[in-house]
């Protein structure tokens, strides 16, 4: 597979994709060998006696070589065997070649789909000798300049195999799409122009307010980011207290750094989907809609009907200049096995990757996560910016040997910056039952209360007079309107009492005189404090941290862990709970002290099983025996998923009716894609327990593979999605 121009477009081959990390020869060999099995008599007979050969495209995962029905002839094992005969580098290729349809395989697993069985025991049809000679003639595998990871280097080898897999799969998909669309591959590949992006960003920055001490500090942070961008590639940390302008400052760094080093794109990774909506909108206003690719769980490239081919392709192979995604999408892809999730990985090479609120990474996956980030910097030409409102949490130290090394701080003196940006006092309120908390909130003209669960927020809002409620029970369009109303009330000095979940905690620029925060991790409390006296207009603001009924309002494990660690340090640092010393102690308890003597506390994925042991290559036998498929199963940042429910809020009602009235025989892919795009802003994500309850109440139904709320009374204009309404609405269901 070579880079070939057809018309005005250029379709890259696997070697071209791999050339950015100096592995062109390996990529080219993978391209030549991946379909070698098609040069067998059995496969050619199969083509002649079937209407069409299964397409090597985004749908190819539905047609693995070893499917149960035996509808296809194995055409990938032949090339994998030839590659494996070429030594260690060939073994790495064999994983990619064998898995280019069904996914990266395990070396050994139960059943006959593992790579060892396919390489040594499985019967395959002989291939045409002349084709084999053509594929391998005068081609030698040359080892790329990969610096091995500490220890055996097996993890680095597994990463190289995965990146070759990505290069092969992406090229395979694009060439197949070009063939079946008669030369129009549909590839989105906008040329990244950092200077043009910088010009747009500067124009936006010139329109922002400049008066006041806080804005003066923000300008200093921006200047520090631009100066640091001229440094060599690698790891950088940007530790700026909430409200210090780190989102735009980190983007300014990324753009100048990309221009300085000829990097190919900027990837902005965010911990929560509720924040990504706001950040993506802000970037679109600055850079334009067409320049920003938003990629998260609500925009799923694996759903063939949920996105346009152009959107799906961009999401799958990250060929856009600016990608805004979630930690979940980015990091899980780096350990994935499916071709559709891995094909974008080679495009990460030579990127600036910004991790916002990096301290929110789960403790149990720190070892594999930090190992893969190190690989991206060491061997794939990336620079990574670790943004946080708190002090460094994931850098190397004696008590944290898996931490990142050689991280250069952009802000030279974060302690002084903390003192200068200190605009409020964090106080301990003790335990507050709902009635007492409501009484205290009602005594304030303007106040924000942030709690850990949707149920707690709904209960408080129901009891607080004239409360404004904000949570993920509200669809995005509804939340956007409410935030706009909150900002208007605050700016006009009107009464504004807000009860919110963590959707208000980060990425929302609001300025309250008083904030109440339910107990949480110290990093979350710092985020909440960033909504108090944000612009420094008052001498100081008050942030009250309170205990609550945790049995009634059960939080997820990550929140409970944070609460436990916060309680251990609260008394000691009561005078300044957000001091660098307090933050350092908190992360020592939360991250650094939880590895255990063997470090397994930093490496227990789904089911408590290790991810790193899947990628150690069986060091004792040095077989390069990787368990790729098992690693993908174990590496899960979020272990419980949500189902989107489209709700009848404003345009959502019309969308629901149009879906219900669409006859199956008239349903087209383009129509449902358009419907999905429009409905994203009118969807509420719910967990399995709540989904079952709505089903029991018969307030939701499935139509054309989409879930919709069929009772307007089940969506409250204050509280959002309710679980207590029963039955469907005849008005909504009428055809």
From TrEMBL:
Domain Helicase ATP-binding: 227-409
InterPro entries attached to this UniProt entry: Cas3-like_dom, CRISPR-assoc_Cas3_HD, CRISPR-assoc_Cas3_HD_sf, DEAD/DEAH_box_helicase_dom, DEAD_box_RNA_helicase, Helicase_ATP-bd, Helicase_Cas3_CRISPR-ass_core, P-loop_NTPase
UniProt keyword terms in alphabetical order: Antiviral defense, ATP-binding, Helicase, Hydrolase, Metal-binding, Nuclease, Nucleotide-binding
A Gene Ontology cellular-component term: cytosol
GO biological process terms held by the UniProt record: defense response to virus
Pfam families in the record: Cas3-like_C_2, Cas3_HD, DEAD
The HD Cas3-type domain, residue ranges: 13-174
Single annotated GO MF: nuclease activity
Homology family: In the central section; belongs to the CRISPR-associated helicase Cas3 family. In the N-terminal section; belongs to the CRISPR-associated nuclease Cas3-HD family.
UniProt protein name: DEAD/DEAH box helicase
Taxonomic lineage of the native organism: Bacteria, Pseudomonadati, Planctomycetota, Planctomycetia, Pirellulales
């Amino acid at each position: 597979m070579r880079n070939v121009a057809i018309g005005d477009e250029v379709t890259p081959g696997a070697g071209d994709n791999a050339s950015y990390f100096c592995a062109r020869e390996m990529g080219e060999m993978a391209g030549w060998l991946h379909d070698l099995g098609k040069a067998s008599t059995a496969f050619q007979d199969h083509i002649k006696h079937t209407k069409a050969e299964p397409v090597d495209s985004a749908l190819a995962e539905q047609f693995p070589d070893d499917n149960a029905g035996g509808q296809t002839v194995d055409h990938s094992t032949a090339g994998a065997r030839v590659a494996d005969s070429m030594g260690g580098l060939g073994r790495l290729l064999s994983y990619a070649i064998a898995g280019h349809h069904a996914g990266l395989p395990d070396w050994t697993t139960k059943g006959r789909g593992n790579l060892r069985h396919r390489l040594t025991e499985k019967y395959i049809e002989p291939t045409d000798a002349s084709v084999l000679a053509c594929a391998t003639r005068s081609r030698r595998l040359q080892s790329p300049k990969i610096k091995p990871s500490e220890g055996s280097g097996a993890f680095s080898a597994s990463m190289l195999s995965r990146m070759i897999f990505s290069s092969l799969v992406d090229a395979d998909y694009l060439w197949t799409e070009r063939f079946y669309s008669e030369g129009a591959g549909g590839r989105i590949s906008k040329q990244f122009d950092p200077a043009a992006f910088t010009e747009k960003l500067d124009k936006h920055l010139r329109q922002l307010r400049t008066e006041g001490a806080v804005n003066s500090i923000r300008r200093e942070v921006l200047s520090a980011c631009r100066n640091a961008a001229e440094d060599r590639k690698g790891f950088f940390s940007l530790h700026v207290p909430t409200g210090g302008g780190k989102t735009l400052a980190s983007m300014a760094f990324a753009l100048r750094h990309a221009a300085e080093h000829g990097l190919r794109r900027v990837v902005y990774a965010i911990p929560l989907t509720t924040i990504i909506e706001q950040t993506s909108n802000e970037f679109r206003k600055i850079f334009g809609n067409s320049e920003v690719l938003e990629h998260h769980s609500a925009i799923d490239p694996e759903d063939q009907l949920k996105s346009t081919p152009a959107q799906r392709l961009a999401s799958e192979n990250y060929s856009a200049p600016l990608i805004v995604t979630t930690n979940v999408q980015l990091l899980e892809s780096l350990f994935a096995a499916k071709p559709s999730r891995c094909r974008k990985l080679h495009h990460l090479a030579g990127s600036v990757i910004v991790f916002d609120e990096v301290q929110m990474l789960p403790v149990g996956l720190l070892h594999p996560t930090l190992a893969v980030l190190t690989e991206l910097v060491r061997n794939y030409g990336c620079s990574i910016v670790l943004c946080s409102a708190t002090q460094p949490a994931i850098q190397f130290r004696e008590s944290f040997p898996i931490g990142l090394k050689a991280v250069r701080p952009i802000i030279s003196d974060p302690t002084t910056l903390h003192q200068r940006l200190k605009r409020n006092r964090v106080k301990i309120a003790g335990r507050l039952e709902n009635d007492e908390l409501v009484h205290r909130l009602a005594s304030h003209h303007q106040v924000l209360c942030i709690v850990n669960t949707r149920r707690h927020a709904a209960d408080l809002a129901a009891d607080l007079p004239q409360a404004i409620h904000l949570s993920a029970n509200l669809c995005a369009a509804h939340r956007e309107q409410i935030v706009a109303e909150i900002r208007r009330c605050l700016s006009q000095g009107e009464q504004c009492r807000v009860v919110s979940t963590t959707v208000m905690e980060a990425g929302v620029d609001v300025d309250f005189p008083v904030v109440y925060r339910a107990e949480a991790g110290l990093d979350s409390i710092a985020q909440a404090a960033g909504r108090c006296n944000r612009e420094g207009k008052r001498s100081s603001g008050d942030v009250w941290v309170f205990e609550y009924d945790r049995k009634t309002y059960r939080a997820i494990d990550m929140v409970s862990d944070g609460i436990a660690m916060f309680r251990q340090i609260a008394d000691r640092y009561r005078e300044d709970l957000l001091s660098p010393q307090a933050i350092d102690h908190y992360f020592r308890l939360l991250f650094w002290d939880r590895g255990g003597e063997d470090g397994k506390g930093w490496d227990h994925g789904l089911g408590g099983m290790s991810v790193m042991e899947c990628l150690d290559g069986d060091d004792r036998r040095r077989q390069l025996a990787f368990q790729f498929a098992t690693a993908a199963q174990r590496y899960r940042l979020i272990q419980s998923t949500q189902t989107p429910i489209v709700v009848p809020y404003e345009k959502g009602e019309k969308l629901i009716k149009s879906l219900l009235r669409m006859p199956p025989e008239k349903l087209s892919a383009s129509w449902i894609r358009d419907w999905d795009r429009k409905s994203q802003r009118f969807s509420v994500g719910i967990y399995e327990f709540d989904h079952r309850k709505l089903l029991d109440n018969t307030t939701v139904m499935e139509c054309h593979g989409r879930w919709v709320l069929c009772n307007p009374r089940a969506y409250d204009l204050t509280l959002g999605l309710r679980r207590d309404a029963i039955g469907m609405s005849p008005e909504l269901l009428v055809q």
